[in-house]
Design goal:
The protein is α/β, with parallel strands linked by helices and about 160 residues long. About 45% of the residues lie in helices and about 15% in strands. The protein has six helices and five strands, in the order H-H-H-E-H-E-H-E-E-E-H. The chain has a three-stranded parallel sheet with strand order 1-2-5. It has a two-stranded antiparallel sheet with strand order 3-4. The longest helix has 14 residues. It is globular and about 45 Å long.
Length: about 160
């Protein structure tokens, strides 16, 4: 992982750009909340090599808490196109109805996440970043609707300066 991050930083730097944040992808994203030993190793390695790193993790997740306690800055992420259970965790994609396909459902989700945050374990957690999965068949329509809702609600959309 560190080798990949170093290569990414080098490629960005060579193009006059800077990597602003890191978001673990796929199963690693979820495993970091399920496996404290893995999370500890990943976040400690990241903090030692890249102490100014900003890590994008699920709002209210154990991974977000562990990364913060390890000295990393965390951006709390919410999902525009996924359904949450009553504990604030994402429903497994294999479950029926786990993905929001209707742009009306997405609009409601975006509005709620941006304005109210997410309730995780009985506590309200604010959302810093919204994610739309690009691999869905309706990704562009979902992204367009999400942006429209944010604009209509007067919620500023900006690149992070963290």
């Amino acid at each position: 992982m560190l080798g990949q991050l170093d290569a990414l930083r080098g490629a960005a730097s060579g193009s006059g750009l800077a990597v602003q944040s890191i978001k673990p992808h796929g199963q690693l994203y979820h495993d970091l909340s399920d496996d404290e030993e893995l999370a500890s190793a990943v976040f400690a390695a990241l903090a030692s090599r890249w102490p100014e790193a900003v890590v994008v993790l699920a709002a209210g997740s154990r991974a977000a808490r562990w990364a913060s306690s390890g000295g990393l800055r965390v951006v709390a992420e919410g999902f525009c196109d996924r359904v949450y259970d009553d504990r604030g965790a994402l429903l497994d994609r294999a479950q029926p109805g786990a993905l929001l396909r209707s742009t009306d459902e997405v609009a409601d989700q975006v509005r709620a996440l941006a304005r109210d945050g997410l309730v995780v374990g009985g506590a309200r957690v604010s959302i810093d970043s919204l994610c739309v999965h690009s691999d869905g068949p309706d990704a562009l329509a979902i992204l367009d609707r999400a942006r429209h809702v944010l604009d209509a609600e007067g919620i500023a959309v900006a690149a992070s300066d963290r």
